[in-house]
Amino acid sequence: MRKLSLLLMGLVAVLGCxxxxxxxxxxxxxxxxAATSNPAPDxxxxxxxxxxxxxxxxxLTNPFFKIIAENLTKEAKKHGYDVIVNxxxxxxxxxxxxxxxxxxxxxxxxxxxxxxxxxxGPAVKKANDAGIPVFTNDLQCVAEGVKISGHIGTxxxxxxxxxxxxxxxxxxxNGGKVLILHFKQANSCVLRVDGFMEVIDAYNEGRESGKIxxxxxxxxxxxxxxxxxxxxxxxxxxxxxxxxxxxxPSALGAWTALNEAQKADKVVIxxxxxxxxxxxxxxxxxxxxDPIQFPAQMGQVTAQNIIKYLDGEEFAEVELIPTELxxxxxxxxxxxxx
Length: 338
Description:
alpha/beta; Rossmann fold; six-stranded parallel sheet; 12 strands
């Protein structure tokens, strides 16, 4: 009898263990399913950067320099290089600090749009001494005793001459009084005004009437707000017939000042750049014409020249891209504006 009781108790114990076994099996199955639906992450290593390029832009407030930065970065990335972009905000001291930082970071190359064509020289010399090549685009550095490894920009003198021809075309035989909105810190702008004045001086030579008279040359800062302020000031002192602005932002600022003074339909504006906003303004009749330049090409070729320099290949150390005169008829057929 006692043996029968022990047998029955053993049977109950065995049967009582079965639910626990079932639960463990279910848990194991769930874990296996989760592992299947969440595979291990791909741990393929990213391509290692070959180096870094530092770019100190004159001002990223101006879309022109944003386009350069974007295309420089894109082209450099194709060749395995990263790009650091900093905004000098037209401040040569800030740009000099950017260069100091790039040297400390041991970048592969430095690119600048000089905030001042001369006084940026000592900072560039530091990079030269550190063995880091310095490239410029759009704006040139003319400081003595420094090495610029490559430059690509606009043929600004040729563009200034086109602006002068456009001014003569717009004013006609009557001539008129002209305001120049300048930015003398930039070598490119000095060349634009020099080219413009060559054509205007040649036009005026020997004329008794219908001359084009430059009544004021003011600092438009290359920006819309400063172009607006300078034009508003000029209108207090002069009856203007035309404005030559060294870029689109200052030209658009001039138009705003003229419009507020109810003189926008009486004063001709010649700009420079061919930015999208400038082209649109030409289409709308706010600006008469622009010699247009090609910032995307500047960014791309700067990166390509850096790669050639590093690989020991030959390239043009100075390359100037001719401008083209862009009028209302061009704007009306421009796919960008459709």
